[in-house]
Amino acid sequence: MRRFRPLFLWLVIAFLALLYVVNSLYSALLEGLHLPLQTNDQVILESSRLAPLTTIVLLVLAVIVAPLCEEIFFRGFVFPGLRRGLATGWAIVVSALVFGLAHADLGSLPVLIVIGLLLALLRWWSGSIYPGLLLHILNNGISAAVILLYMVGRLH
What we know:
Layout (H helix, E strand, L loop, with lengths): L5 H27 L7 H9 L3 H34 L2 H15 L6 H18 L3 H22 L5
Helix pairs in contact: 1-5, 2-6, 3-4, 3-6, 4-5, 5-6
């Protein structure tokens, strides 16, 4: 595993900013084209008041189990496998596309691809799935926190 460098923290911050920009632009495009694509988070939000306990269990799975399984599969197996036959840059891009498409969430596809790019870059740079796993848990945890705040009436 490589030693942590502050520059890398800035790269992560830049990617998170890019994530926000991509999400905003994609949302504006969908709205402008009047395409009624929902994200998985929106579906969970809509059902959260009807089945709160189910939603809480789903959120725990989304924050802990999903990132662990996805990082082991996509960055532990898919990415290294792609690197055997492709240049590293292409392996990063292809693994990010597969990661995005595997979520079956057209409403969030560009954002998921950017997340996949960041996580594959983290895997390549660090030589480990652990930094990406932590970032993945953080990302899903933020989404879960927003949904929980919505459920308790703090967000509308």
